[in-house]
Amino acid sequence: MKSIVYRNPREVVVEDKPMPEIAAGEVLVKVAYVGVCGTDMFIYQGAHPRAKAPLIMGHEFSGTIVKGHPTLPEGTPVTVYPLLSCGHCEPCLSGQAHVCNTLRLIGIDRDGAMAEYVKVPADKIMEIPRDLPLKLGAFIEPLAVGVHAVRRSGYRPGDRAVVYGAGPIGLCVATCLRYFGASEVIVVETNPHRLAVAARLGCTAIDGANEDLRARVKELTGGTNADFAFDCAAHPSVQATLLDVIRVQGTAVVVGSYKKPPEVDLLKVEFKELTILGIRVYERRDFEIAIEMLRSKRIDFDLLLSESAPEQAPAVFQDLLQGGNVIKMIFRL
Ligand SMILES: [Zn+2]
Ligand SMILES: [Zn+2]
Question: How far away, in angstroms, is 101 Cα from ligand 2 center?
Answer without folding.
Answer: 5
